[in-house]
Specification:
Number of helices: 9
Largest sheet: 7 strands, mixed
Order of helices and strands: EEEHHEEEEHEHEHEEHEHEHEHE
CATH superfamily of the largest domain: Medium-chain alcohol dehydrogenases, catalytic domain
Distance between the termini: 32 Å
Shape: globular
CATH architecture of the largest domain: Alpha-Beta Complex
Structural class: alpha/beta
Bound molecules: NADP nicotinamide-adenine-dinucleotide phosphate
CATH class of the largest domain: Alpha Beta
Radius of gyration: 20 Å
Helix content: 10-25%
């Protein structure tokens, strides 16, 4: 589902082979957005940097589309859920980002493959996850064999492909951890966001009865994604109703296990996708429990998302696209916390 955007889809929608047949032909320089400090979007600077040197097990991808995710903004601003401040600095760099080129997800074309790589050829259209290693906000990125990389189905544009992994992998992981079954009642807080819009669809696909929590302006979107009903959080507090759910997934950190406890059925699971350290450490209360932590980067999960998207069971939700040259504007929009689904940057201009 591509929402009305201020930019047309990327013009690079063909999988035409590129010239470079091997890692020896990797570019000597590339343009990349460098996050040289923590702070506002102004800390992002477009630079020309030395080209990558892919190893024998690496795939070099020419980046045609990359998501600008809430994780990119969290890393740049260091606005992390409560309790994660020091851990964030230790993970990402004490004084400034250790990996200064952000960007966790990529869709593009394989430019070159290392000699030990199997299953990919120069010219293949792919989508991949650099994850916490990042580096996708550049003309080219290197994905080691340990990172999820799959072929892009023709049905998906590069923009749609780049929009899938961030929200989709998190939603899939948490639904799996909660072992959501057909017939269970699932409430998704933040149902219009990247994680939430994927979770609504994936839970519905499993046969769950889905309630989406969103604002009035996003009700139509969330119902179109498959929610059976919605709660407008600006008008109603679901914890003050008599309704109960088997699973409550908070994808935006707007609640806590404690405040949702009375809204959970026996054996209910609270999914703390974006919660504080306290939520992560929350102990079970009777038969009810809280589930948190980071979603892993697994190729089988990415392949499952792609298969579901190919089958039409998972619609990519793309709010806005921006040209790569406007990456700070994309960051600023994501930072509002109001985006619907994903924001994607596309189409580096010819150098
Ligand atoms: N644990 C993990 O491994 C993992 C993985 C991925 C992401 N995350 C975390 O998950 C969080 C969500 O990421 P995201 O990219 O999905 O966020 P997002 O797309 O930026 O979320 C924005 C959406 O949330 C809605 N929203 C905001 N406040 C809300 C509220 N109180 N109730 C209901 N909806 C609300 C907004 O709608 P309105 O404008 O209508 O309010 C907007 O559509 C982030 O904190 C991210 O760091 C964690």
């Amino acid at each position: 589902m591509t929402l009305p955007t201020p930019m047309p889809d990327t013009p690079h929608t063909s999988a035409a082979p590129f010239a470079s047949p091997s890692a020896a032909h990797a570019p000597t320089t590339l343009r990349a957005w460098v996050c040289h400090d923590y702070g506002g979007a102004e800390v992002l600077e477009l630079q020309t940097r030395p080209g990558p040197t892919p190893g024998p097990r690496d795939v070099l991808v020419r980046v045609l589309a990359a998501s600008v995710s809430s994780a990119d903004v969290r890393i740049r601003t260091q606005n992390l859920p409560r309790g994660f401040g020091l851990l964030g600095r230790l993970a990402f760099g004490l004084a400034r980002p250790r990996q200064p080129v952000l960007g966790t997800d990529v869709a593009g074309v394989v430019e070159a493959v290392g000699r030990d790589v199997q299953g990919f050829q120069p010219g293949d259209a792919v989508l991949g996850v650099a994850g916490v290693a990042m580096g996708c906000h550049a003309e080219y990125c290197v994905l080691p064999a340990t990172k999820p990389l799959v072929h892009k189905p023709a049905r998906l544009s590069f923009v749609e492909a780049a929009s899938l992994p961030f929200g989709g992998l998190a939603a899939l992981h948490f639904l799996n951890k909660a072992q959501v079954r057909a017939g269970e009642r699932v409430l998704v807080i933040g149902a219009s966001g990247a994680v939430g819009s994927a979770m609504v669809q994936l839970a519905r696909h499993r046969g769950a009865l889905v309630t989406g929590v969103c604002s009035a302006g996003n009700v139509a979107l969330v119902l179109a994604l498959g929610a059976h009903d919605v709660v407008d959080y600006t008008a109603q507090d679901f914890t003050q109703t008599a309704q109960r759910w088997d699973v409550i997934a908070d994808t935006v950190g707007a609640s806590s296990f404690a405040t949702c406890l009375a809204s959970l059925n026996e054996h209910g699971r609270y999914l703390s996708v974006a919660g504080s350290l306290m939520e992560l450490l929350a102990r079970p209360r009777g038969t009810r429990r809280s589930i948190g932590g980071p979603a892993p980067e697994r190729v089988q999960d990415l392949q499952m998302l792609v298969d579901l998207a190919r089958a039409g069971a998972l619609q990519p939700v793309v709010d806005r696209t921006y040209p790569f040259t406007d990456l700070p504007a994309a960051h600023a929009y994501v930072e509002t916390g109001r985006k619907r689904g994903a924001v994607v940057v596309v189409a580096w201009p010819e150098p």
